[in-house]
Amino acid sequence: MVDNSASTHWGGVKRAEYARKNKIYARIGENVSIQSRIVPVYSELIKFHNNIAVARKVDFCTHDIIHKVLNRLPEDGLDNYKFKEHIGCIH
Fold first, then answer.
1. How far apart are CA 81 and CA 32, in angstroms?
2. Of 24, 22, 19, which Cα lies nearest the Cα of 34?
3. pLDDT tens sequence across 7-39
4. Rounded to 5 degrees, what angle do the CA atoms 47, 51, 57 make?
């Protein structure tokens, strides 16, 4: 049986270097490995600090649709207020 863990790791390191060079994410620190081949929506909001390994099949949710859910509530309790989409850091 062949152990591909080392080659898989270096593939992730190369993927992180490519993402850093092309500014796909807000920040990628040192010693980062990204196994996932899927780039999330609003990837420019994501920062990876040092010594990070992102496994395959990991999803990053940079937004949700709560504004759409809240806007479907009966209007009598919200005085016809419409919630807006928020993109960015949640404080």
1. 44
2. 19
3. 667 899 999 999 999 999 999 999 999 999 999
4. 65
85: Cα separation from own chain's centroid: 17
- pTM for the whole structure: 0.69
Nearest Cα to 39, choosing from 22, 24, 54? 24
List the beta bridge partners of residue 48.
28
**DSSP string over 5-66:** HHHHHHHHHHHHHHHHHTT-SSEE-SSEEE---PPPTTGGG-EE-SSEEEPTT--------H
Residue 33 to residues 10, 63, 72, Cα–Cα distance (Å) = 8, 24, 41
Residue 91, both tokens: 């404080």
